[in-house]
């Protein structure tokens, strides 16, 4: 598949940001994040139930609603600044990048095969340097079949995945014409977790040791499959954890993949070795501090699951134990 950029423009907030909100201070957690762009791609097949809507009309609607959404999420339309006092966001309303690209293929060709990492990068392009560039980049990719893939990139210095979810849901609500009922974001985390030092954290580029290639795989789980996994985990855990055990969707899928990796490693090594699984964890509703659910910025931690089972043991770990 070939991806061709059609145009790129800056979308600014529909209402100027007040002067007293011009400087948004980052938190001590924000300052620790690498200044790279993280993101997600949303895929939509052509909506056969809404015929007669051409792509230019859809793009205009998305652009207009994005502008209204940025009025609420005004720091995202600013620029990252580093100076002698540290780092902050200048909420100058310069805007976010809004890009339209055409893809010469069908969206199902992309969804029903192993991920092409080079192609995914073209579907969600972003700047190499954070300073002076837009903090958010949105790329709308249109396919020959009418399908759309929306790539969203945001710098990790200002947002975690929870913040991105709030932003995307608010934009989607505004795009449906309901801007008055969008969630109003909260940007007060910096008052709770101010930066303790003025020095800017200069992260070195990551090192790749050796020439070993990494394997990228995609696993698709239907809603029914996840429901069956949750039921299986509950049944397995009745004796040890009681009937109140209610694993989340993330927990059961992570446990299934972890158990598969343990089996693969055992087959390759001939014995069982310790394993650790790490993932990010939203702290907003998990701490004693009263952090609003709509608080934006970085407020997460890393959690780990470990298995230090002795190598001599051949007992197969149960699903609910992972």
UniProtKB/TrEMBL annotation:
It comes from the Eukaryota. The keyword Acyltransferase applies. Keywords: Acyltransferase, Transferase. Gene3D superfamilies: Chloramphenicol acetyltransferase-like domain (3.30.559.10). GO terms for molecular function: acyltransferase activity. It holds the Pfam family Transferase. Belongs to the plant acyltransferase family. This is Uncharacterized protein. It comes from Eucalyptus grandis.
